[in-house]
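A reminder from the course coordinator: this example appears on the midterm review sheet, so study it carefully.

Given structure:
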C-alpha cells in the first residue's frame, strides 16, 4: 500500500549518497578534470596549489569515495530494513539519521584527502621527496 511506496522512496533517497560517492569517485579516479578549476573535482586550497597536487587529490579522493560508497551501500540497506513495517514516522526518522550519518562520513573524507596531500606535498604544492 501507501506505506510500502513511502518506505521504498525513503530507501532510494538514502541510497543516493552511497551511489553518488560510488559514481563520483569512479569518475574522479578515471576521468579527473585536467585543469585546476573552481567548479568540478576535489577543490580545496591545498589541492589547487599545483597540477601535481590537483591530480593526486582527484585520484586519492576518487578511490576513497568508491571504497566508502561500497561500504555505505549495504550498511544503508541494513540500517533501513528493520523499519520496513514500522510506520511513516519511524521510517522518516531512520532515513534522517542514516542520511545525516552518511553526510558526516562524506565530509570526514575531506580530512583524509587533506592529510594525504599534506603528507605528499609541501605548502607550495611541490611533491615531497621520498626519504
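Designed residues:
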Amino acid at each position: 500500500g501507501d506505506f510500502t511506496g513511502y518506505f521504498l522512496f525513503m530507501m532510494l533517497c538514502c541510497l543516493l549518497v552511497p551511489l553518488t560517492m560510488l559514481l563520483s569517485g569512479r569518475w574522479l579516479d578515471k576521468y579527473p578534470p585536467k585543469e585546476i578549476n573552481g567548479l568540478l573535482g576535489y577543490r580545496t586550497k591545498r589541492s589547487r596549489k599545483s597540477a601535481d597536487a590537483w591530480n593526486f587529490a582527484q585520484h586519492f579522493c576518487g578511490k576513497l569515495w568508491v571504497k566508502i560508497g561500497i561500504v555505505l551501500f549495504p550498511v544503508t540497506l541494513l540500517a533501513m530494513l528493520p523499519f520496513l513495517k514500522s510506520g511513516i514516522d519511524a521510517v522518516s526518522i531512520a532515513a534522517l539519521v542514516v542520511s545525516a550519518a552518511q553526510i558526516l562520513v562524506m565530509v570526514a573524507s575531506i580530512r583524509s584527502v587533506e592529510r594525504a596531500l599534506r603528507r605528499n606535498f609541501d605548502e607550495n604544492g611541490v611533491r615531497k621527496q621520498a626519504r
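The CA atoms of residues 33 and 52 lie 12 Å apart. The helical segments are 2-30, 51-80, 88-120.
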